[in-house]
Design a protein that fits this description.
The protein is mainly β. It has a domain of 99 residues: Immunoglobulin-like (Sandwich), CATH 2.60.40.10. The protein has no helices and 18 strands. The strands form 4 sheets. A 5-stranded antiparallel beta sheet has the order 1-2-3-7-6, with no helix packed on it. Strand 11 and strand 12 form a beta hairpin.
């Protein structure tokens, strides 16, 4: 996913926002005049046409189904079954992994991006990413061999008392682990636009980002309410001769509809992966 993709997000005000809003409608996001737009996970049908739904809203799509399974060790375990009803065991590698699992509470807190391992019988397992009581949405982001990429979603719950957290106020900057990430660019619903995320530490630009899953940054956007999902990737890739390792990571995306979104940027520096989170509001064109 080193090419531009689509993403639902919104404009953050003057400083502006992440470049796009995940909408309940058609998703598009050209990267430039000389490049053909590539689809983000979960937005293509088998004929190569864009779906009318963002990824992650369905537990079953195009014959593939996500099913969680009990695990005696306490791990989070699941399988993917295919159109023939059998467990799928053949997956293509995307962004250095055959399976990406995104987990977040229904109030958009507790975000985790992990990578399960698959047993011979097709069961995927990972140490539980569920951080305490609450209802979670789990997104399996994958590409079955011979088929198009998919993102399937399923709800799962952890028993116990919990109070939903309010969505943080929209802002153009976020801090994490001593890093400051600034979001620049603006998008209007229905128009493609550019988003620049600039990373600094102690007031100095970070110019030596490390590749993480074959990119200098990964961006996930989730729409408040239904948690419509879009995994967006930056323009360019490490080693292509033109993409610099910071301080700015650029994304292209389109906001097809208005709404509130939570954005999660993963980046790696000094051998550690950090996640910066933003709230943004997509506005109508």
């Amino acid at each position: 996913m080193n090419t531009p993709a689509k993403l639902g997000v919104f404009g953050l005000g003057l400083a502006a926002v992440f470049g796009a809003a995940l909408g309940a409608g058609h998703l598009t996001g050209p990267v430039g005049a000389e490049e053909k737009p590539h689809a983000a996970h979960g937005d293509m049908d088998h004929g190569g046409h864009e779906s009318t739904l963002p990824g992650g809203l369905l537990v079953s799509d195009r014959g593939y189904t996500l099913t969680t399974v009990p695990d005696a060790t306490g791990a989070f375990a699941f399988r993917i079954t295919g159109p023939n009803g059998r467990t799928v065991t053949a997956f293509d590698t995307q962004h250095d992994k055959r399976m990406h699992l995104i987990v977040v509470r229904r109030d958009l807190s507790g975000f985790r991006h992990v990578h399960p391992t698959m047993a011979a019988d097709g069961t995927w397992r990972v140490a539980s990413p569920l951080s305490g009581p609450g209802t979670y949405r789990a997104f399996a982001d994958f590409k079955p061999t011979g088929a198009d990429p998919l993102t399937l979603g399923v709800d799962t719950a952890v028993a116990g008392d919990t109070t939903p957290r309010p969505l943080p106020t929209p802002a153009a900057t976020a801090t994490v682990d001593g890093y400051t990430v600034t979001l620049r660019g603006s998008l209007t619903a229905g128009r493609a636009g550019r988003l620049d995320l600039t990373i600094s530490r102690d007031g100095r630009p970070v110019t030596d980002l490390q590749p993480y899953l074959a990119a200098y940054g990964h961006l996930v956007a989730l729409r408040q309410g239904d948690l419509a999902y879009l995994h967006v990737h930056p323009d360019g890739e490490p080693g292509d001769g033109k993409t610099r390792p910071g301080p700015t990571v650029t994304f292209y995306a389109e906001a097809p509809s208005a709404g509130a979104y939570r954005l999660y940027l993963d980046f790696q520096h000094d051998g550690t992966v950090h996640t910066a989170e933003f709230t943004a509001e997509a506005k109508e064109g």
